[in-house]
């Protein structure tokens, strides 16, 4: 498919969950590797579920951003990018209010500038493998 004329119909897009699992939001451009079957990611608790959702939306946002670098006139994708961006900001605020800051740029640090020391990072938690 010619990439210049690509994506005039959003049915060519995976949803954020599938796109994240496959590593590609564009269904027409996805080419599976041999017999590889991507693992379906599962969260074990609310914190992991919210973080996974943030990761999926962030991935979708970045994919739309890359597409818009080449096709800035595509209003449909620009709207989708903005929808994902708003979803991300909303979910990020909710996550940070429940589990603490994700980055040092977080607004939650305005109230308590070193507040991240009171929360555990995902890699600090016990994981049963």
Task: Report on the architecture of this protein.
The chain is mostly helical and 129 residues long. The chain is built from three helices and no strands. The longest helix is centred in the middle third of the chain and has 25 residues, at 46-70. It is flat. The model is unreliable at 1-8 (pLDDT under 50).
Query: What is the alpha-carbon Rg in Å?
Result: 17 Å
Q: Please summarize the sheet with the most strands.
A: none
What global shape is seen?
A: flat
SS-based structural class?
Answer: mainly alpha
The low-pLDDT segments are 1-8
Order of helix and strand elements from N to C terminus: HHH
Helix content: 40-55%
- What is the residue-averaged pLDDT? 83
Number of helices: 3
What distinguishing features does this structure have?
129 residues, mainly alpha, 44% helix, disordered N terminus
Topology, pairings included?
Layout lengths: L15 H7 L23 H25 L4 H25 L30
Short synopsis of the structure:
By secondary structure, this protein is mostly helical. Helices cover 44% and strands 0% of the residues.
């Amino acid at each position: 498919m010619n990439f210049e004329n690509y994506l005039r119909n959003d049915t060519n897009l995976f949803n954020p969950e599938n796109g994240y699992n496959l590593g590609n939001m564009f269904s027409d451009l996805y080419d599976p590797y041999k017999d590889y079957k991507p693992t379906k990611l599962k969260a074990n608790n609310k914190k992991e579920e919210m973080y996974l959702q943030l990761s999926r939306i962030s991935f979708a946002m970045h994919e739309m951003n890359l597409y818009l670098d080449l096709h800035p006139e595509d209003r449909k994708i620009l709207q989708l990018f903005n929808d994902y961006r708003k979803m991300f900001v909303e979910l990020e605020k909710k996550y940070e209010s429940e589990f603490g800051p994700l980055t040092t740029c977080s607004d939650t640090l305005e109230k308590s500038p070193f507040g991240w020391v009171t929360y555990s990072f995902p890699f600090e938690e016990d994981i049963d493998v």
